[in-house]
Amino acid sequence: MSPDQLGFVTLLKKEVMRFWSVLGQTVIAPVITALLYLLVFAQAMKGRAPVYPGVGYGEFLVPGLVMMTVIQNAFANTSSSLTQSKMMGNLVFLQMAPLGPLEWFGAYIIAALFRCMLVACAMLLVTVPFVHLPIHAPLALLVMFVLSAGSLAALGLIAGIVAEKFDHIAAFTNFFITPLSFLSGVFYSVHALPPLWFKASHFNPFFYMIDGFRYGFFGHADVPILYSVLWSFGFFALASAVCMWMLVTGYKLKR
Amino acid sequence: MTSTSAPTAAAPASAIEIRGIRKRYGALEALRGVSFDIRRGEFFALLGPNGAGKSTLISIISGLVHASEGSVSVLGHDTVRDYRAARRRLGVVPQELVFDPFFKVRDMLRIQAGYYGCGKEVWPWIDEMLERLDLSAKANVSMRALSGGMKRRVLIAQALVHKPPVVILDEPTAGVDVELRRTTWAFMSDLHRQGTTVVLTTHYLEEAQELCSRIAILDRGSVAVIEPTQHLLARHPYRFLRIKLVDGAQLPEGLMPLVTGEVNGALELKLETSRNPIGGVFDALRTAGIGIEDVHTREPDLEDIFIELTGHPVGAVAAGAPK
What we know:
Structural class of chain B: alpha/beta
Number of strands of chain A: 0
Shape of chain A: elongated
Number of domains of chain A: 1
Order of helices and strands of chain A: HHHHHHHHHH
InterPro entries (chain B): AAA+_ATPase, ABC_transporter-like_ATP-bd, ABC_transporter-like_CS, ABC_transporter_ATP-binding, P-loop_NTPase
Helix content of chain A: over 70%
Domain ABC transporter (chain B): 16-245
Number of helices of chain A: 10
Largest sheet of chain B: 6 strands, mixed
Radius of gyration of chain A: 19 Å
Number of strands of chain B: 14
Order of helices and strands of chain B: EEEHEEHEHHHEHEHEEHEEEHEH
Strand content of chain A: under 5%
Structural class of chain A: mainly alpha
Keywords (chain B): ATP-binding, Nodulation, Nucleotide-binding, Transport
Oligomer: heterodimer
Distance between the termini of chain A: 33 Å
Family (chain B): Belongs to the ABC transporter superfamily.
Largest interface: A-B, 31 and 32 residues
GO molecular function, one term (chain B): ATP hydrolysis activity
Protein backbone atom coordinates (compact mmCIF):
# COMPACT_ATOMS: atom_id res chain seq x y z
CA MET A 1 0.00 0.00 0.00
CA SER A 2 1.41 3.43 -0.93
CA PRO A 3 1.74 6.11 1.79
CA ASP A 4 -1.17 8.05 0.22
CA GLN A 5 -3.38 4.96 0.23
CA LEU A 6 -2.42 4.20 3.84
CA GLY A 7 -3.32 7.79 4.80
CA PHE A 8 -6.73 7.38 3.19
CA VAL A 9 -7.37 3.98 4.83
CA THR A 10 -6.32 5.40 8.21
CA LEU A 11 -8.72 8.33 7.94
CA LEU A 12 -11.50 5.96 6.90
CA LYS A 13 -10.70 3.65 9.82
CA LYS A 14 -10.62 6.56 12.22
CA GLU A 15 -14.02 7.80 11.01
CA VAL A 16 -15.50 4.31 11.45
CA MET A 17 -13.91 3.96 14.91
CA ARG A 18 -15.40 7.33 15.85
CA PHE A 19 -19.03 6.32 15.29
CA TRP A 20 -18.34 2.75 16.45
CA SER A 21 -17.21 4.06 19.83
CA VAL A 22 -20.68 5.57 20.35
CA LEU A 23 -22.74 2.84 18.66
CA GLY A 24 -25.67 3.41 21.01
CA GLN A 25 -26.11 6.94 19.65
CA THR A 26 -25.11 6.34 16.07
CA VAL A 27 -26.79 3.05 15.18
CA ILE A 28 -29.05 1.68 17.93
CA ALA A 29 -30.93 4.93 18.70
CA PRO A 30 -32.01 5.60 15.08
CA VAL A 31 -33.16 2.00 14.73
CA ILE A 32 -35.34 2.30 17.84
CA THR A 33 -36.79 5.61 16.64
CA ALA A 34 -37.67 4.12 13.25
CA LEU A 35 -39.22 1.09 14.92
CA LEU A 36 -41.45 3.37 17.01
CA TYR A 37 -42.59 5.16 13.84
CA LEU A 38 -43.43 1.79 12.32
CA LEU A 39 -45.41 0.60 15.32
CA VAL A 40 -47.37 3.85 15.70
CA PHE A 41 -48.12 4.51 12.02
CA ALA A 42 -48.76 0.89 11.06
CA GLN A 43 -51.27 0.64 13.93
CA ALA A 44 -52.93 3.98 13.14
CA MET A 45 -53.27 3.22 9.42
CA LYS A 46 -54.37 -0.39 9.87
CA GLY A 47 -57.26 -1.38 7.59
CA ARG A 48 -56.54 1.29 4.93
CA ALA A 49 -56.58 0.27 1.27
CA PRO A 50 -53.19 -0.99 -0.02
CA VAL A 51 -51.00 1.82 -1.41
CA TYR A 52 -49.76 -0.38 -4.25
CA PRO A 53 -51.55 -3.55 -5.39
CA GLY A 54 -50.84 -6.26 -2.82
CA VAL A 55 -48.63 -4.01 -0.66
CA GLY A 56 -50.00 -3.31 2.82
CA TYR A 57 -49.27 -0.05 4.65
CA GLY A 58 -46.71 -1.67 6.96
CA GLU A 59 -44.75 -3.02 3.98
CA PHE A 60 -45.08 0.31 2.17
CA LEU A 61 -43.80 2.21 5.21
CA VAL A 62 -40.64 0.23 6.00
CA PRO A 63 -38.50 1.08 2.91
CA GLY A 64 -39.40 4.76 3.33
CA LEU A 65 -38.48 4.70 7.01
CA VAL A 66 -35.20 2.94 6.23
CA MET A 67 -34.29 5.51 3.57
CA MET A 68 -35.36 8.44 5.77
CA THR A 69 -33.13 7.13 8.56
CA VAL A 70 -30.27 6.57 6.10
CA ILE A 71 -30.63 10.15 4.82
CA GLN A 72 -30.62 11.61 8.32
CA ASN A 73 -27.73 9.47 9.54
CA ALA A 74 -25.55 10.06 6.50
CA PHE A 75 -25.91 13.80 7.04
CA ALA A 76 -25.40 13.51 10.80
CA ASN A 77 -22.27 11.36 10.49
CA THR A 78 -20.18 13.67 8.34
CA SER A 79 -21.54 16.97 9.66
CA SER A 80 -21.10 16.08 13.33
CA SER A 81 -17.65 14.55 12.85
CA LEU A 82 -16.27 17.56 11.01
CA THR A 83 -17.97 20.13 13.24
CA GLN A 84 -16.74 18.40 16.39
CA SER A 85 -13.21 18.32 15.02
CA LYS A 86 -13.43 22.01 14.19
CA MET A 87 -14.87 22.97 17.56
CA MET A 88 -12.38 20.81 19.50
CA GLY A 89 -9.53 22.10 17.34
CA ASN A 90 -8.25 18.62 16.49
CA LEU A 91 -8.96 19.15 12.79
CA VAL A 92 -5.43 20.61 12.61
CA PHE A 93 -4.03 17.07 12.80
CA LEU A 94 -5.77 16.27 9.53
CA GLN A 95 -5.07 19.64 7.97
CA MET A 96 -1.34 19.32 8.61
CA ALA A 97 -1.23 15.73 7.33
CA PRO A 98 -0.24 14.90 3.73
CA LEU A 99 -3.81 14.00 2.78
CA GLY A 100 -5.40 15.39 -0.38
CA PRO A 101 -9.00 16.59 -0.87
CA LEU A 102 -10.00 13.34 -2.57
CA GLU A 103 -8.81 11.29 0.40
CA TRP A 104 -10.74 13.52 2.81
CA PHE A 105 -13.87 13.26 0.68
CA GLY A 106 -13.61 9.51 0.09
CA ALA A 107 -12.89 8.60 3.71
CA TYR A 108 -15.70 10.70 5.19
CA ILE A 109 -18.25 9.54 2.60
CA ILE A 110 -17.39 5.83 2.80
CA ALA A 111 -17.45 5.90 6.62
CA ALA A 112 -20.93 7.46 6.46
CA LEU A 113 -22.05 4.79 3.94
CA PHE A 114 -20.81 2.11 6.31
CA ARG A 115 -22.76 3.57 9.23
CA CYS A 116 -25.87 3.85 7.05
CA MET A 117 -25.47 0.26 5.86
CA LEU A 118 -25.39 -0.89 9.49
CA VAL A 119 -28.46 1.20 10.35
CA ALA A 120 -30.40 0.01 7.27
CA CYS A 121 -29.55 -3.66 7.87
CA ALA A 122 -30.46 -3.40 11.57
CA MET A 123 -33.78 -1.73 10.70
CA LEU A 124 -34.69 -4.33 8.09
CA LEU A 125 -33.77 -7.06 10.55
CA VAL A 126 -35.90 -5.76 13.42
CA THR A 127 -38.93 -5.30 11.15
CA VAL A 128 -38.87 -8.94 9.97
CA PRO A 129 -41.42 -10.03 12.63
CA PHE A 130 -43.84 -7.26 11.55
CA VAL A 131 -43.69 -7.12 7.75
CA HIS A 132 -42.66 -9.29 4.83
CA LEU A 133 -40.60 -7.36 2.30
CA PRO A 134 -39.98 -8.81 -1.14
CA ILE A 135 -36.82 -7.77 -3.02
CA HIS A 136 -37.74 -6.98 -6.61
CA ALA A 137 -34.59 -5.24 -7.91
CA PRO A 138 -31.47 -5.63 -5.70
CA LEU A 139 -29.33 -3.49 -8.03
CA ALA A 140 -31.81 -0.61 -7.79
CA LEU A 141 -31.73 -0.95 -3.99
CA LEU A 142 -27.95 -0.78 -3.96
CA VAL A 143 -27.71 2.12 -6.42
CA MET A 144 -30.37 4.15 -4.61
CA PHE A 145 -28.75 3.43 -1.25
CA VAL A 146 -25.27 4.52 -2.39
CA LEU A 147 -26.48 7.63 -4.24
CA SER A 148 -28.79 8.75 -1.44
CA ALA A 149 -26.42 8.11 1.47
CA GLY A 150 -23.53 9.52 -0.58
CA SER A 151 -25.48 12.70 -1.40
CA LEU A 152 -26.42 13.36 2.20
CA ALA A 153 -22.95 12.51 3.45
CA ALA A 154 -21.52 15.06 0.98
CA LEU A 155 -24.14 17.58 2.09
CA GLY A 156 -23.14 16.87 5.70
CA LEU A 157 -19.51 17.59 4.83
CA ILE A 158 -20.55 20.90 3.24
CA ALA A 159 -22.56 21.80 6.34
CA GLY A 160 -19.64 20.79 8.58
CA ILE A 161 -17.25 22.98 6.58
CA VAL A 162 -19.59 25.98 6.61
CA ALA A 163 -20.76 25.63 10.24
CA GLU A 164 -19.00 27.75 12.82
CA LYS A 165 -20.87 26.25 15.77
CA PHE A 166 -23.13 23.30 16.55
CA ASP A 167 -26.19 25.59 16.28
CA HIS A 168 -25.55 25.93 12.56
CA ILE A 169 -25.69 22.15 12.10
CA ALA A 170 -28.84 21.96 14.24
CA ALA A 171 -30.44 24.69 12.10
CA PHE A 172 -29.50 22.88 8.89
CA THR A 173 -30.97 19.64 10.25
CA ASN A 174 -34.14 21.18 11.68
CA PHE A 175 -34.98 23.53 8.81
CA PHE A 176 -33.77 21.53 5.82
CA ILE A 177 -33.05 17.83 6.34
CA THR A 178 -35.92 16.90 8.67
CA PRO A 179 -38.75 18.74 6.83
CA LEU A 180 -37.63 17.55 3.40
CA SER A 181 -37.25 13.96 4.57
CA PHE A 182 -40.69 13.99 6.26
CA LEU A 183 -42.34 15.56 3.19
CA SER A 184 -40.81 13.10 0.76
CA GLY A 185 -43.47 10.39 0.71
CA VAL A 186 -42.17 8.26 3.57
CA PHE A 187 -45.61 7.92 5.12
CA TYR A 188 -47.79 8.23 1.99
CA SER A 189 -47.83 7.96 -1.79
CA VAL A 190 -47.52 11.41 -3.36
CA HIS A 191 -50.54 10.49 -5.54
CA ALA A 192 -52.64 10.94 -2.41
CA LEU A 193 -51.60 14.61 -2.15
CA PRO A 194 -53.52 17.69 -3.45
CA PRO A 195 -52.23 18.83 -6.90
CA LEU A 196 -50.02 21.66 -5.57
CA TRP A 197 -48.23 19.46 -3.01
CA PHE A 198 -48.03 16.65 -5.56
CA LYS A 199 -46.12 18.98 -7.92
CA ALA A 200 -44.01 20.41 -5.09
CA SER A 201 -42.94 16.90 -4.05
CA HIS A 202 -41.32 16.44 -7.46
CA PHE A 203 -38.82 19.19 -6.60
CA ASN A 204 -37.79 17.45 -3.39
CA PRO A 205 -34.68 15.33 -4.07
CA PHE A 206 -35.43 13.15 -1.04
CA PHE A 207 -38.70 12.08 -2.71
CA TYR A 208 -36.75 10.40 -5.52
CA MET A 209 -34.37 8.73 -3.07
CA ILE A 210 -37.22 7.16 -1.13
CA ASP A 211 -39.34 6.36 -4.17
CA GLY A 212 -36.45 4.68 -6.00
CA PHE A 213 -35.49 2.70 -2.90
CA ARG A 214 -39.10 1.54 -2.53
CA TYR A 215 -39.07 0.43 -6.17
CA GLY A 216 -36.20 -1.91 -5.35
CA PHE A 217 -38.45 -3.79 -2.95
CA PHE A 218 -41.84 -3.80 -4.71
CA GLY A 219 -41.20 -3.01 -8.38
CA HIS A 220 -43.81 -0.24 -7.94
CA ALA A 221 -43.10 3.45 -7.36
CA ASP A 222 -44.68 6.88 -7.81
CA VAL A 223 -42.24 7.80 -10.62
CA PRO A 224 -40.19 5.61 -13.00
CA ILE A 225 -36.99 4.25 -11.43
CA LEU A 226 -34.87 5.98 -14.07
CA TYR A 227 -36.12 9.39 -12.86
CA SER A 228 -35.20 8.48 -9.31
CA VAL A 229 -31.73 7.31 -10.30
CA LEU A 230 -31.06 10.40 -12.43
CA TRP A 231 -32.34 12.85 -9.80
CA SER A 232 -30.34 11.15 -7.07
CA PHE A 233 -27.24 10.98 -9.24
CA GLY A 234 -27.61 14.68 -10.10
CA PHE A 235 -27.93 15.57 -6.43
CA PHE A 236 -24.93 13.42 -5.54
CA ALA A 237 -22.85 14.97 -8.33
CA LEU A 238 -23.81 18.52 -7.31
CA ALA A 239 -23.18 17.98 -3.59
CA SER A 240 -19.88 16.22 -4.33
CA ALA A 241 -18.72 18.97 -6.70
CA VAL A 242 -19.47 21.72 -4.15
CA CYS A 243 -17.80 19.71 -1.40
CA MET A 244 -14.70 19.02 -3.48
CA TRP A 245 -14.43 22.70 -4.42
CA MET A 246 -14.51 23.59 -0.72
CA LEU A 247 -11.86 21.00 0.12
CA VAL A 248 -9.58 21.96 -2.77
CA THR A 249 -9.74 25.71 -2.08
CA GLY A 250 -9.72 25.31 1.70
CA TYR A 251 -12.95 27.30 1.92
CA LYS A 252 -13.70 27.98 5.61
CA LEU A 253 -11.00 25.48 6.53
CA LYS A 254 -7.93 27.57 5.80
CA ARG A 255 -7.78 31.20 6.79
CA MET B 1 15.25 7.40 16.56
CA THR B 2 16.97 7.24 13.23
CA SER B 3 16.58 10.68 11.80
CA THR B 4 15.77 11.05 8.14
CA SER B 5 17.60 14.36 7.96
CA ALA B 6 21.10 13.09 7.28
CA PRO B 7 22.54 15.38 4.61
CA THR B 8 23.05 13.90 1.17
CA ALA B 9 24.84 15.30 -1.86
CA ALA B 10 21.61 16.51 -3.46
CA ALA B 11 19.93 17.61 -0.25
CA PRO B 12 19.04 21.31 0.09
CA ALA B 13 21.00 23.32 2.65
CA SER B 14 17.86 24.84 4.12
CA ALA B 15 15.40 22.91 6.24
CA ILE B 16 12.84 25.69 5.79
CA GLU B 17 13.05 28.42 3.15
CA ILE B 18 10.70 31.38 3.63
CA ARG B 19 10.48 33.84 0.74
CA GLY B 20 8.58 37.13 0.76
CA ILE B 21 5.67 35.91 2.88
CA ARG B 22 2.87 38.42 3.30
CA LYS B 23 -0.42 37.76 5.03
CA ARG B 24 -3.28 40.23 5.05
CA TYR B 25 -6.47 39.96 7.08
CA GLY B 26 -8.51 42.70 5.45
CA ALA B 27 -6.72 45.97 6.16
CA LEU B 28 -4.38 44.39 8.70
CA GLU B 29 -1.07 43.09 7.44
CA ALA B 30 -0.01 40.34 9.85
CA LEU B 31 3.18 39.47 7.92
CA ARG B 32 5.00 42.04 5.80
CA GLY B 33 7.31 40.28 3.41
CA VAL B 34 9.11 37.87 5.72
CA SER B 35 12.12 36.07 4.22
CA PHE B 36 14.70 33.90 5.93
CA ASP B 37 16.13 30.40 5.95
CA ILE B 38 16.36 27.87 8.73
CA ARG B 39 19.36 25.66 8.10
CA ARG B 40 19.36 21.89 8.30
CA GLY B 41 20.21 20.62 11.76
CA GLU B 42 19.69 23.95 13.50
CA PHE B 43 17.98 24.47 16.84
CA PHE B 44 16.31 27.73 15.88
CA ALA B 45 14.15 30.11 17.91
CA LEU B 46 11.40 32.27 16.48
CA LEU B 47 10.54 34.93 19.02
CA GLY B 48 8.34 37.98 19.17
CA PRO B 49 5.68 39.68 21.25
CA ASN B 50 2.11 38.38 21.03
CA GLY B 51 0.64 39.41 17.69
CA ALA B 52 4.04 39.75 16.02
CA GLY B 53 3.06 37.12 13.43
CA LYS B 54 4.88 34.03 14.73
CA SER B 55 1.85 31.75 14.83
CA THR B 56 0.61 33.02 11.47
CA LEU B 57 4.00 32.21 9.96
CA ILE B 58 3.99 28.73 11.52
CA SER B 59 0.44 28.17 10.29
CA ILE B 60 1.54 29.10 6.76
CA ILE B 61 4.51 26.73 6.94
CA SER B 62 2.29 23.89 8.19
CA GLY B 63 -0.46 24.48 5.61
CA LEU B 64 -3.17 25.75 7.94
CA VAL B 65 -3.23 29.25 6.45
CA HIS B 66 -2.89 30.54 2.89
CA ALA B 67 -0.19 33.18 2.43
CA SER B 68 -1.33 36.29 0.56
CA GLU B 69 2.07 36.37 -1.18
CA GLY B 70 5.34 34.48 -1.11
CA SER B 71 6.37 30.87 -0.76
CA VAL B 72 7.67 28.40 1.79
CA SER B 73 9.51 25.16 1.18
CA VAL B 74 10.47 22.39 3.56
CA LEU B 75 13.67 20.57 2.57
CA GLY B 76 13.18 21.84 -0.97
CA HIS B 77 9.48 20.91 -1.25
CA ASP B 78 7.06 23.77 -1.79
CA THR B 79 4.36 23.67 0.90
CA VAL B 80 1.60 24.45 -1.64
CA ARG B 81 2.63 22.84 -4.94
CA ASP B 82 4.31 19.82 -3.35
CA TYR B 83 2.41 19.76 -0.07
CA ARG B 84 2.44 16.01 0.46
CA ALA B 85 6.25 15.76 0.36
CA ALA B 86 6.64 18.95 2.43
CA ARG B 87 4.24 17.77 5.13
CA ARG B 88 5.82 14.31 5.37
CA ARG B 89 9.06 16.06 6.33
CA LEU B 90 7.50 18.35 8.89
CA GLY B 91 6.10 17.83 12.38
CA VAL B 92 4.29 20.66 14.15
CA VAL B 93 3.32 20.90 17.80
CA PRO B 94 0.39 23.34 17.84
CA GLN B 95 0.13 26.02 20.48
CA GLU B 96 -3.45 25.17 21.47
CA LEU B 97 -4.12 22.16 23.68
CA VAL B 98 -6.18 20.24 21.12
CA PHE B 99 -7.09 16.55 21.22
CA ASP B 100 -9.56 14.03 19.84
CA PRO B 101 -11.83 12.93 22.69
CA PHE B 102 -12.89 9.68 20.97
CA PHE B 103 -9.53 7.92 21.23
CA LYS B 104 -6.99 6.54 23.65
CA VAL B 105 -3.43 7.86 23.64
CA ARG B 106 -1.73 4.97 21.81
CA ASP B 107 -4.58 4.63 19.29
CA MET B 108 -4.41 8.35 18.57
CA LEU B 109 -0.67 8.15 17.89
CA ARG B 110 -1.10 5.14 15.59
CA ILE B 111 -3.85 6.96 13.70
CA GLN B 112 -1.64 10.03 13.37
CA ALA B 113 1.20 7.87 12.02
CA GLY B 114 -1.20 6.35 9.48
CA TYR B 115 -2.12 9.79 8.11
CA TYR B 116 1.55 10.14 7.17
CA GLY B 117 1.65 6.74 5.48
CA CYS B 118 3.44 5.05 8.39
CA GLY B 119 2.24 1.62 9.47
CA LYS B 120 3.26 -0.93 12.07
CA GLU B 121 6.95 -0.23 11.49
CA VAL B 122 6.64 2.92 13.65
CA TRP B 123 4.79 1.25 16.52
CA PRO B 124 8.04 0.55 18.46
CA TRP B 125 8.95 4.24 17.97
CA ILE B 126 5.53 5.21 19.35
CA ASP B 127 6.16 3.08 22.43
CA GLU B 128 9.63 4.59 22.79
CA MET B 129 8.18 8.10 22.67
CA LEU B 130 5.53 7.20 25.24
CA GLU B 131 8.34 5.97 27.47
CA ARG B 132 10.55 9.04 26.92
CA LEU B 133 7.69 11.44 27.49
CA ASP B 134 6.59 9.59 30.62
CA LEU B 135 3.26 8.57 29.08
CA SER B 136 3.56 4.76 29.11
CA ALA B 137 1.17 4.42 32.03
CA LYS B 138 -1.41 6.46 30.13
CA ALA B 139 -1.07 4.69 26.76
CA ASN B 140 -4.49 3.05 27.04
CA VAL B 141 -6.25 5.98 28.68
CA SER B 142 -8.75 8.18 26.86
CA MET B 143 -7.40 11.57 25.77
CA ARG B 144 -10.23 13.15 27.77
CA ALA B 145 -8.85 11.77 31.03
CA LEU B 146 -5.38 13.35 30.70
CA SER B 147 -4.13 16.41 32.56
CA GLY B 148 -3.10 19.52 30.59
CA GLY B 149 0.59 18.65 30.87
CA MET B 150 0.00 15.12 29.61
CA LYS B 151 -2.08 16.36 26.69
CA ARG B 152 0.81 18.69 25.83
CA ARG B 153 3.20 15.73 25.78
CA VAL B 154 0.84 13.74 23.55
CA LEU B 155 0.85 16.70 21.15
CA ILE B 156 4.65 16.50 21.02
CA ALA B 157 4.48 12.75 20.35
CA GLN B 158 1.88 13.31 17.62
CA ALA B 159 4.16 15.78 15.86
CA LEU B 160 7.06 13.30 15.96
CA VAL B 161 5.19 10.12 15.17
CA HIS B 162 6.26 10.00 11.51
CA LYS B 163 9.89 10.80 12.39
CA PRO B 164 10.00 14.16 10.60
CA PRO B 165 13.44 15.65 9.91
CA VAL B 166 12.06 19.14 10.67
CA VAL B 167 10.03 19.86 13.80
CA ILE B 168 8.28 23.08 14.80
CA LEU B 169 7.24 23.54 18.40
CA ASP B 170 4.86 26.45 18.94
CA GLU B 171 5.18 27.27 22.64
CA PRO B 172 5.37 23.62 23.68
CA THR B 173 6.09 24.31 27.33
CA ALA B 174 3.40 26.93 27.97
CA GLY B 175 1.63 26.04 31.21
CA VAL B 176 3.87 23.04 31.78
CA ASP B 177 5.65 22.41 35.10
CA VAL B 178 9.43 22.68 35.43
CA GLU B 179 10.08 18.93 35.55
CA LEU B 180 8.08 18.36 32.42
CA ARG B 181 9.83 21.22 30.63
CA ARG B 182 13.13 19.57 31.47
CA THR B 183 11.93 16.19 30.16
CA THR B 184 10.64 17.78 26.97
CA TRP B 185 13.88 19.63 26.28
CA ALA B 186 16.06 16.62 27.05
CA PHE B 187 14.03 14.65 24.50
CA MET B 188 14.14 17.41 21.88
CA SER B 189 17.89 17.91 22.44
CA ASP B 190 18.44 14.20 21.78
CA LEU B 191 16.49 14.43 18.53
CA HIS B 192 18.48 17.50 17.56
CA ARG B 193 21.77 15.70 18.23
CA GLN B 194 20.57 12.97 15.87
CA GLY B 195 20.11 15.52 13.09
CA THR B 196 16.55 16.78 13.45
CA THR B 197 16.04 20.48 12.73
CA VAL B 198 14.10 22.03 15.61
CA VAL B 199 12.26 25.35 15.40
CA LEU B 200 10.94 26.73 18.63
CA THR B 201 8.72 29.58 19.71
CA THR B 202 8.56 30.20 23.43
CA HIS B 203 7.85 32.85 26.02
CA TYR B 204 10.58 31.40 28.22
CA LEU B 205 13.53 33.23 26.73
CA GLU B 206 16.03 31.39 28.89
CA GLU B 207 14.96 28.24 26.98
CA ALA B 208 15.73 29.88 23.65
CA GLN B 209 19.01 31.25 24.99
CA GLU B 210 20.08 27.87 26.33
CA LEU B 211 18.92 25.63 23.48
CA CYS B 212 19.00 27.60 20.25
CA SER B 213 22.04 28.38 18.12
CA ARG B 214 20.22 31.06 16.11
CA ILE B 215 17.33 33.37 16.86
CA ALA B 216 14.92 35.40 14.75
CA ILE B 217 12.81 38.06 16.39
CA LEU B 218 9.60 39.02 14.63
CA ASP B 219 8.01 42.34 15.41
CA ARG B 220 4.84 43.72 13.85
CA GLY B 221 4.99 41.25 10.99
CA SER B 222 8.64 41.80 10.02
CA VAL B 223 11.92 40.21 10.98
CA ALA B 224 13.50 42.64 13.48
CA VAL B 225 16.69 40.60 13.75
CA ILE B 226 18.06 37.19 12.84
CA GLU B 227 21.44 36.25 14.29
CA PRO B 228 23.35 33.53 16.11
CA THR B 229 22.38 33.63 19.78
CA GLN B 230 25.89 34.52 20.96
CA HIS B 231 26.18 37.44 18.49
CA LEU B 232 22.81 38.71 19.61
CA LEU B 233 23.85 38.64 23.25
CA ALA B 234 27.25 40.19 22.51
CA ARG B 235 25.88 43.10 20.51
CA HIS B 236 23.99 44.45 23.51
CA PRO B 237 26.49 47.06 24.82
CA TYR B 238 25.15 47.17 28.36
CA ARG B 239 25.53 45.51 31.70
CA PHE B 240 23.37 45.85 34.75
CA LEU B 241 24.44 46.91 38.24
CA ARG B 242 22.12 46.25 41.16
CA ILE B 243 23.09 48.28 44.20
CA LYS B 244 21.63 48.62 47.69
CA LEU B 245 22.62 51.77 49.58
CA VAL B 246 23.23 52.00 53.35
CA ASP B 247 20.23 53.34 55.35
CA GLY B 248 18.19 53.84 52.16
CA ALA B 249 20.35 56.78 51.07
CA GLN B 250 19.47 58.66 47.86
CA LEU B 251 21.53 58.11 44.73
CA PRO B 252 23.56 61.16 43.59
CA GLU B 253 21.68 63.27 41.01
CA GLY B 254 24.18 62.46 38.24
CA LEU B 255 23.50 58.71 38.43
CA MET B 256 19.69 58.95 38.42
CA PRO B 257 19.31 58.77 34.57
CA LEU B 258 20.95 55.33 34.67
CA VAL B 259 18.31 53.82 36.97
CA THR B 260 15.96 51.36 35.22
CA GLY B 261 14.07 50.00 38.21
CA GLU B 262 14.04 48.80 41.80
CA VAL B 263 14.21 45.17 42.90
CA ASN B 264 13.83 44.21 46.59
CA GLY B 265 14.99 47.63 47.77
CA ALA B 266 18.00 47.63 45.43
CA LEU B 267 18.29 50.01 42.49
CA GLU B 268 19.10 48.60 39.06
CA LEU B 269 21.34 50.75 36.85
CA LYS B 270 21.83 50.10 33.15
CA LEU B 271 25.43 50.91 32.25
CA GLU B 272 26.73 51.34 28.73
CA THR B 273 30.00 49.38 28.77
CA SER B 274 32.01 52.00 26.85
CA ARG B 275 30.62 55.15 28.55
CA ASN B 276 29.64 54.13 32.08
CA PRO B 277 32.34 52.00 33.74
CA ILE B 278 31.26 50.44 37.05
CA GLY B 279 34.21 52.12 38.74
CA GLY B 280 32.72 55.50 37.87
CA VAL B 281 29.53 54.65 39.79
CA PHE B 282 31.53 53.61 42.84
CA ASP B 283 33.63 56.80 42.62
CA ALA B 284 30.49 58.96 42.48
CA LEU B 285 29.06 57.22 45.56
CA ARG B 286 32.31 57.54 47.45
CA THR B 287 32.55 61.26 46.61
CA ALA B 288 28.99 61.77 47.84
CA GLY B 289 29.80 59.88 51.04
CA ILE B 290 27.17 57.19 50.41
CA GLY B 291 27.88 53.71 51.72
CA ILE B 292 27.06 50.50 49.79
CA GLU B 293 25.24 47.66 51.58
CA ASP B 294 25.13 45.18 48.73
CA VAL B 295 26.15 45.06 45.08
CA HIS B 296 25.44 42.67 42.20
CA THR B 297 26.12 42.76 38.47
CA ARG B 298 24.53 40.82 35.64
CA GLU B 299 25.15 40.54 31.92
CA PRO B 300 22.25 41.26 29.56
CA ASP B 301 20.12 38.29 28.68
CA LEU B 302 17.78 37.64 25.80
CA GLU B 303 14.92 39.31 27.61
CA ASP B 304 16.85 42.62 27.68
CA ILE B 305 17.70 42.33 24.00
CA PHE B 306 14.12 41.45 23.20
CA ILE B 307 12.84 44.59 24.96
CA GLU B 308 15.56 46.67 23.31
CA LEU B 309 14.53 45.48 19.84
CA THR B 310 10.77 45.35 20.14
CA GLY B 311 10.03 47.83 22.89
CA HIS B 312 7.82 45.19 24.57
CA PRO B 313 8.44 42.63 27.27
CA VAL B 314 7.84 39.03 26.20
CA GLY B 315 4.13 38.20 26.32
CA ALA B 316 3.06 41.80 25.69
CA VAL B 317 0.90 42.44 22.67
CA ALA B 318 2.59 44.13 19.72
CA ALA B 319 1.08 47.39 18.52
CA GLY B 320 -1.25 46.81 15.60
CA ALA B 321 -1.73 43.13 16.46
CA PRO B 322 -5.13 41.60 15.74
CA LYS B 323 -7.33 41.74 18.86
